[in-house]
Amino acid sequence: MSHAAVSITPGVEYFPGFLDRAAQEALRDDVLAILEAAPPFHPRMPRTGKPFSVRMSNCGSLGWVSDERGYRYQATHPETGRPWPAIPSRLVAAFAAIAPDAPPPEACLINLYDSAARMGLHQDRDENELAAPVVSFSLGDTALFRVGGLQRNAPTRSFRLASGDAMSLAGESRLAFHGVDRVIAGSSTLLPQGGRINLTLRRVTKASG
Ligand code: MD3
Ligand code: FE
After folding, report:
1. How much distance in Å is there from the Cα of 161 to the middle of ligand 2?
2. Could you write out the three-class secondary structure of the chain?
């Protein structure tokens, strides 16, 4: 594992090549097994019900879901009704290597991008614990990622998130606007069907103590 962090903007740290190829393959296999138990679903926009282009699943004690009733964290899959699978131990270890002082993550959102999927500029603000860092890992095709400021119209910076890259978001950037402009098809051989998987680990409830 490489631990050289690049600071993108205060609170946003980028770890290019954090996972080597063997670690990416092991994590990919963990995630593909999770998706057998907790199949990807298409989240829908609150109110309008318009489906996201990104498919999602989760692991951990809580998972992020969205539908006509709103955005929320819940303990069960919205379609199967089953509890989410556990976060794989190698992923918990990778989180701890990046955020050694953080409370244990409760939610791991699994975002699945095909070559047409994107994620508009947004803030992550559905967590009750905003003091804890968010840590993300990318697998598969490279994404063109954008991060801005605390207001939607602030200037943004773009960079690529490639397979094995990690990012941590903390402090003043925890509420920065960000999004995925597009995914570059065919840029990685990691995933058998192509596309991109992003894993985002979060603390949702206030950590006690
Ligand atoms: C920057 N996912 O699921 S994760 C999301 O690549 C989401 O799938 C993106 O944004 C993806 O909400 C990016 C990295 C990330 C997470 C939280 C952030 C970047 C962030 C919070 C503030 C600034
Ligand atoms: Fe986000």
Report:
1. 14
2. CCCCCEEEECCEEEECCCCCHHHHHHHHHHHHHHHHHCCCECCECCCCCCECCCEEEEEECEEEEEECCEEEEECECCCCCCECCCCCHHHHHHHHHHCCCCCCCCEEEEEEECCCCCEEEECCCCCCCCCCCEEEEEEECCEEEEECCCCCCCCCEEEEECCCCEEEECHHHCCCCEEEEEECCCCCCCCCCCCEEEEEEECCCCCCC
Q: What is the per-residue pLDDT across 2-52, written as a single tens digit (0 to 9) for each?
A: 567 878 778 899 999 999 999 999 999 999 999 999 999 999 999 999 999
Instruction: Please state the atom number of ligand 1 nearest to the C-alpha of residue 175.
Output: 22
The band of 162, judged by pLDDT with boundaries at 50, 70 and 90, is: very high
Cα–ligand 1 centroid distance for 38 (angstroms): 21
pTM of the model as a whole = 0.96
Query: How much distance in Å is there from the Cα of 130 to the middle of ligand 1?
Result: 14
